[in-house]
Design a protein that fits this description.
By secondary structure, the chain is α+β, with helices and mostly antiparallel strands. It folds into two domains: about 260 residues, L-amino peptidase D-ALA esterase/amidase; about 120 residues, Roll (Ubiquitin-like (UB roll)), CATH 3.10.20. About 30% of the residues lie in helices and about 25% in strands. It is built from eleven helices and 16 strands. The strands form three sheets. Strands 9-16-11-15-12-13-14 form a seven-stranded mixed beta sheet, with helices on both faces. A five-stranded mixed beta sheet has the order 3-10-8-7-6, sandwiched between helices. It has a four-stranded mixed beta sheet with strand order 1-2-4-5, with helices on both faces. α1 crosses α2 and α2 runs parallel beside α3.
Length: about 400
């Protein structure tokens, strides 16, 4: 079940970017589980990857291939190819080589990505047998099919798309993501693929993606677990006709803002689709000494099972929020200066419960589907926002039954 309205949006095709899908039967046969993305030769590519030490084999291969002017992405759902040792690396590279053979490229121009169950060998034979169908399906308009092919426990396809003006030319930024559990990204998200027809140098594109991921995907948490397979890719085909975007220009600022907007929307959709989620919780930390401190406090609240279960129960048990702020590790915290709000209702000030707080007002906020927690630390001017969701019975059920 999703929180709020999450209909798949109109996706603007990106010139120079084609997508093709098919079903390889990796874990199921009801929907497509293979996605191939092809970019024009004029393009550039940037990516960010998980910081999990046990990163998956496709992550290791994709990191190696990123410097080789990649033109194709190969994504499978249903199997993570993680925790699979040397055989997993061989399987990931073999998949790249198989796709390269279909498109007359070289293996190093393919970036592989996998999502699904950890610890199971990748069924390479099934995957490679399906590639001709995926390549034959390549089309600029297949964003909706692509978004569905990368889903695992997701309940809906996630997409975002917009058109901006660069020097009088329309430039498209379109992206998809997947993820609903094992979400506490330490770089990006479970999987995200964003494309644009802008012309931009790879190093500047990387700078843009890294900055956007930091304030979007790195600000969400479903359960505090960082996946072995997290990755986000930004492709720029250069086929839109706009002049090249240069560093320190007004055009770069416009472009970077668009990429960030798309990333933030995709990240929010992941939280709205959190496994078993019934509520979206927006945690705003203000008056921190710096951004890192604000994020630390926000994520401590977001990761607290006690806070998250209280929100599922619609129980205004504000003491759990207070405790999370107190154990966040902020040095020399002045409790008298801290203010905590549920929505617009002040629950904590001057070191204790606000004199104006009533259980009735707290309950009114907790009964809502989307809730904002605001924490004012009274230490500086930094402000950051973290998104999370509640913990429900269904979260336990989904993850208990994940391999069945």
């Amino acid at each position: 079940m999703a929180v709020g309205q999450c209909d798949f949006p109109m996706m603007h095709p990106v010139k120079g970017i084609k997508l093709g899908t098919c079903n390889a039967g990796i874990k199921q046969t009801q929907r497509d589980d293979i996605l191939v993305i092809e970019m024009a030769e004029t393009g550039s590519c940037a990516a960010v990857f998980t910081q999990n030490a046990f990163c998956a084999a496709p992550v290791l291969i994709a990191r190696e291939h990123l410097s080789q002017e990649p033109r194709w992405l190969l994504i499978n759902s249903g199997n993570a190819n993680a925790g699979t040792g040397k055989q997993g690396l061989q399987d990931a590279f073999a998949s790249c080589a198989a796709l390269a053979g279909e498109v007359e490229g070289i293996a190093q121009q393919v970036l592989p990505f996998s999502t699904g169950v950890i610890g199971e060998p990748l069924p390479v034979t099934k995957l490679t047998a399906a590639l001709p169908s995926a390549v034959a399906d390549l089309n600029e308009g297949h964003w909706d099919k692509a978004a569905r092919a990368i889903m695992t426990t997701d309940t809906f396809a996630k997409g975002a798309s917009m058109i901006i003006d660069i020097a009088g030319h329309p430039v498209t930024v379109t992206g998809i993501s997947k993820g609903a559990g094992m979400i506490q990204p330490n770089m990006a998200t479970m999987l995200g693929f964003i494309a644009t027809d802008a012309a931009i140098d790879p190093s500047l594109l990387q700078q843009c993606l890294s900055a956007a991921a930091e304030i979007s995907f790195n600000r969400i948490s479903v359960d505090g677990d960082t996946s072995t397979n997290d990755a986000c890719v930004l492709l720029a085909s250069g086929c839109g006709g706009a002049p090249e975007i240069l560093a320190d220009s007004a055009e770069y600022l416009t472009f970077a803002n668009a990429v960030t907007t798309v990333c933030k929307r995709l990240a929010e959709l992941i939280i709205r689709d959190g496994e078993g989620a019934t509520k979206l919780i927006r945690i705003v930390v203000e008056q921190a000494r710096d951004g890192a401190e604000a994020v630390l406090v926000g994520k401590t609240i977001a990761h607290s099972p006690l806070v998250k279960t209280a929100f599922f129960a619609s129980d205004p048990n504000w003491g759990r929020i207070l405790a999370a702020v107190g154990r966040a590790g902020v040095e020399n915290m002045d409790l008298e200066k801290i203010e905590i709000y549920l929505g617009t209702v002040c629950i904590v000030e001057n070191g204790g419960r606000s004199p104006g707080y009533t259980e009735q007002n707290g309950q009114r906020v907790m009964d809502q589907e989307e809730i904002t927690i605001t924490v004012r630390l009274g230490r500086g001017e930094a402000r950051e926002e973290v998104l999370t969701c509640d913990f429900s019975y269904d979260y336990v059920r989904i993850n208990a039954e994940y391999r069945s």
